[in-house]
Here is the input.
Amino acid sequence: MKFIIKKIESSGKDWVLEIVRTWGADFIVSRGRKIYPAEIDGFYAEADNGEKVGLVTYEIIRDQCEIVTLDAFRKFSGIGSSLLTKVVSEAKLRSCKRVWLITLNDNLDAIRFYQKRGMTIAAVHINALEESRKIKPVIAKIGQYGIPLRDEIEFETML
Ligand SMILES: CC(C)(COP(=O)(O)OP(=O)(O)OC[C@H]1O[C@@H](n2cnc3c(N)ncnc32)[C@H](O)[C@@H]1OP(=O)(O)O)[C@@H](O)C(=O)NCCC(=O)NCCS
Here is the structure.
């Protein structure tokens, strides 16, 4: 599938919000902090037919760039890789020293995906989801493959 990567402009924020709300709230929780993906920077992948087929949102704080969400709505077509590459380039342009992100312990596809794209595990925050659920009670107890959802895994790439 052919697609191009574009920046999320203010007109695209409602679409981002629509997606985020399918996860149960307007925000996600990362390291005990609420982050509102529709209020931060992002890129999306647009297919030939105009359909939006992927989304990445990120937040740059000082010289650290956190990838807050990354989703390919058509998997295995290179969309996730392209969006990840785009954020890393943007982080370099904006003089960041590190790109990092949180994924959860059940997300085996993502854990494989990030490691194969040069990211390394910087930390495992054991039982972090217990704190996250205090902020966002809709976070499930059981994740993919029936794995108990417990830990945040922090990935990083140094630039
Ligand atoms: C993680 C994610 C963004 C990857 O996006 P993607 O567009 O599918 O990724 P790509 O197409 O660039 O690469 C997919 C990989 O799957 C492989 N693949 C292809 N067909 C496959 C199949 N049928 N089954 C499993 N893997 C397959 C590709 O070869 C590639 O593998 P590689 O890592 O060995 O190179 C996507 O799976 C996703 O949206 N997941 C749900 C949301 C999520 O968990 N996001 C991460 C949160 S931190």
User: Anything to note?
Assistant: The two ends are 30 Å apart (CA to CA). The chain has four helices and nine strands. Helices lie at 13-21, 79-93, 108-116, 128-135.
